[in-house]
Design a protein that fits this description.
The structure is a single chain. With about 300 residues, the protein is α/β, with parallel strands linked by helices. The chain folds into two domains: about 160 residues, Response regulator (Rossmann fold), CATH 3.40.50; about 120 residues, Orthogonal Bundle (Arc Repressor Mutant, subunit A), CATH 1.10.10. Strands 2-1-3-4-5 form a five-stranded parallel β-sheet, sandwiched between helices. It has a five-stranded antiparallel β-sheet with strand order 9-8-7-6-12, with helices on one face. Helix 2 crosses helix 6 and helix 8 packs across helix 9. The chain is elongated, with a radius of gyration of 21 Å.
């Protein structure tokens, strides 16, 4: 039997049964999205540190819309930015779910003559919940009404994907709590010819896509942020797994499994590693192949 999967901000007895079910569904959606964006399937090889806390480094959205609303462009834009989405029709129960802070932000669709605009946005504002109003047609009057009622941003359903992502990032940045990663922590890390796209959860080597699982990606991302530095196995594993603290001795064996798996995909030759390099007696460091370049951050245009 695999490890027990908990939803973001672990479920407790205070949740109503309906909320627990919705949160469990959201978790399954999140796992599917992250596996598809990381290019990997199941973490079936060896120990899986990623599945225990798979939602932690990623953002989540509760999207509320009537069944006839064409929300697909918005959902695709959010998925492309590595944001997990759970879509549900509007109801009092869903508004209560939105107020539980199970999600990083709420995207709520409103029709032109929707009487719920002020009550819903007022409740979300009082609860300090980041909210994006989704509109079929973002007319000046409807947009003004939503913003005055408390929406952090307004988007037309067929808005360009770059605009959707930029608006969402701006909203999350304004609501970020102390210690949370800011937008500047996202984007692209480059180490030699190795490119780690943090937003899309993808890794490329010399322009070639490398299909990593979620946990493998997080290890590579952490090492890319510390490229050139020698990191001990327990430091790496503890940095990417919040629910379990590895002791140095057990981390040695667990990390060796990940090293084999990552090298099998990342290295041109496993016998002559140029990226994930072992410094005997100390730990591992990430290098940029034969270029041996130090990392640099690539700015990503907001659109």
């Amino acid at each position: 039997m695999g490890p027990h999967i908990m939803a973001p901000r672990e479920c407790t007895n205070r949740h109503r049964p309906a909320q627990v079910i919705k949160t469990a569904i959201y978790t399954a959606v999140t796992i599917c999205i992250l596996r598809s964006t990381s290019g990997g399937g199941s973490d079936g090889e060896g120990t899986d540190l990623g599945i225990r806390d798979i939602t932690r480094p990623y953002k989540s959205c509760l999207l509320v819309a009537q069944g006839g609303a064409n929300t697909l462009p918005v959902i695709r834009a959010l998925h492309g930015a590595g944001i997990a989405v759970l879509e549900r029709p509007p109801s009092d129960a869903i508004l209560s779910l939105a107020l539980t802070r199970e999600f990083d932000f709420v995207a709520w669709h409103f029709a032109l003559d929707d009487a719920r605009i002020e009550p819903v946005l007022g409740r979300l504002t009082l609860g300090a919940i980041p909210c994006v109003a989704l509109l079929e047609l973002a007319t000046p009057s409807l947009t003004s009404l939503c913003l005055d009622a408390g929406a952090d941003a307004c988007l037309q359903l067929d808005a360009d994907a770059m605009l959707v992502v930029a608006q969402v990032h701006a909203v999350l940045r304004r609501h970020a709590q102390p210690g949370e990663p800011e937008l500047g922590d996202c984007g692209v890390l480059q180490v030699g010819d190795l490119v780690v796209d943090v937003d899309r959860c993808e890794v490329e080597r010399g322009g070639v896509f490398i299909p990593l699982t979620a946990s493998e990606f997080r290890i590579v991302e952490h090492m890319a942020r510390n490229a050139g530095r020698v990191l001990r196995p327990h430091e790496i594993l503890n940095a990417v797994s919040r629910e379990y603290e590895y002791l140095p001795r057990e981390a040695q064996e667990v990390f060796k499994v990940y090293v084999r798996r990552i090298r099998r995909k990342l290295e041109v030759s496993e016998d002559d590693p140029q990226y994930l390099v072992n410094v005997r007696g100390f730990g591992y460091r990430l290098e940029g192949g034969h270029t041996d370049a130090r990392p640099r951050r690539v700015s990503v245009a907001a659109g």
